[in-house]
Amino acid sequence: xxxxxxxxxxxxxxxxxxxxxxxxxxxxxxxxxxxxxxxxxxxxxxxxxxxxxxxxxxxxxxxxxxxxxxxxxxxxxxxxxxxxxxxxxxxxxxxxxxxxxxxxxxxxxxxxxxxxxxxxxxxxxxxxxxxxxxxxxxxxxxxxxxxxxxxxxxxxxxxxxxxxxxxxxxxxxxxxxxxxxxxxxxxxxxxxxxxxxxxxxxxxxxxxxxxxxxxxxxxxxxxxxxxxxxxxxxxxxxxxxxxxxxxxxxxxxxxxxxxxxxxxxxxxxxxxxxxxxxxxxxxxxxxxxxxxxxxxxxxxxxxxxxxxxxxxxxxxxxxxxxxxxxxxxxxxxxxxxxxxxxx
Length: 343
Hints:
The protein is an alpha+beta fold. It folds into 2 domains: 3-216, Hypothetical protein, domain 2 (Endonuclease III, domain 1); 228-342, Nucleoside Triphosphate Pyrophosphohydrolase (Alpha-Beta Complex). Helix content is 43%, strand content 13%. Strands 1, 2, 3, 4, 5, 6 and 7 form a 7-stranded mixed beta sheet that branches. Strand 1 and strand 2 form a beta hairpin. The model has no long low-confidence stretch (mean pLDDT 94).
């Protein structure tokens, strides 16, 4: 084994995390769910979502037999909702084509929606205890600093280089311990900012640490300014306390979720308001909220109106929900935030 893998395995046996929810009575299914949730999301944020999700969907069949609306209700607030949709799609494929058993083949795993090479490697290593590499954000950071990889981390050639390094340093045994160790060191010690190098088991041979440039790596290509898009919401509440929401059937970041009635132009919202029964009460207008996505920022302007007469002049994708029903549907975090404040 390499010095890197030997030191990481030794360190993990004494200091590594061993009591995370997905590590207890673990199996490939739990590893899969946790790894998908941990994409772009911190461990402490994921834990309550994982516990709630696993309680409702303890195995592939229970997930495969569910529906998108319910699955997304358990994903509400976690973001990157395509991950939840892909879990459901993949569960159905595994149920139909693999007799509800997670395959232990990287090529098959990578063919499923939402499972890339690193997630497949984690499933194989942590779930099946097989020899397989991973390259999540934490592992990348450890390898970049240890081997002093100075090219921007987001370049394809750098990714290819790091995969080669990851594969070369895999141990022949205890690969599952090594995999968890490199993720733990990346998360707990080799942090993005102010890495705790004195506590690192790799400091003796870490090139970046010995050259005192650990805070300068990883490098990234210069950031492009994210474009800003506008969205105009209309939050309607009726005399029964119900809220009118529309389902996002169109493709996009909130596909399948329920949002307030949205418009791209303020005049379109005004035209919709003109259709409302007369004598409505304007509760709030000009409520501003910015939501940031990976590739753009969304500036949301919300108007809150309470109507005192029945209003049923609605498209099929618009539904009135009472407060109890809201907990059982998928809501983007900005919608949940506004509902908690005003409803």
